[in-house]
Write a structure and sequence with these properties.
Layout (H helix, E strand, L loop, with lengths): L15 H22 L11 E2 L11 E4 L5 E3 L2 E3 L1 H14 L5 E5 L5 H13 L5 E3 L2 E2 L4
Parallel strand pairs: 1-7, 2-5, 5-6
Antiparallel strand pairs: 2-3, 3-4
């Protein structure tokens, strides 16, 4: 006669180490992917330098004026009339609407003031000017 061992009513064990490792990997993935999603896609311009700048992390409506006088909304060239029309549309949808103007340092002051004046005519009063921080010495 064969002796059989008595099977106990042991419950299955859950291995927590691999599960914790996977959770950390997922956490790192979401942190890194979120950092890339919040990256602002802009046209490269040389901004003027200022010492008293405030960093704004979320910009919904960024207008770039290149040194050749072209207006860019995000990463697309746009005409002045279309730009003002798009700004009006955005302002109607969002009560906290604000415009950030990124003008190349070689753009004439007159061009920036003209754009500010056009925004004011359209009823847009929340406007900011983008600058670079002064390099640490």
């Amino acid at each position: 006669m064969i002796k059989l061992r008595k099977r106990g009513n042991r419950s299955p064990e859950i291995m927590l180490s691999p599960m914790i490792d996977m959770m950390f990997l997922l956490l790192i993935f979401f942190i890194v992917s979120t950092m890339y999603m919040s990256e602002l896609r802009t046209i490269p311009v040389k901004l003027p330098v200022a010492t008293q700048t405030v960093t704004q992390s979320v910009v919904k409506f960024s207008v770039t004026i290149k040194d050749d006088g072209a207006y860019w909304l995000g990463d697309k060239v746009i005409g002045e009339a279309q730009l003002i029309q798009q700004a009006r549309k955005e302002m109607k949808e969002n009560k906290d609407f604000a415009v950030v103007i990124r003008a190349d340092e070689n753009v004439p002051y007159k061009a920036v003031i003209h754009l500010l004046d056009e925004f004011k005519k359209a009823g847009i009063i929340r406007v900011g000017l983008a600058t670079d921080k002064e390099a640490k010495k």
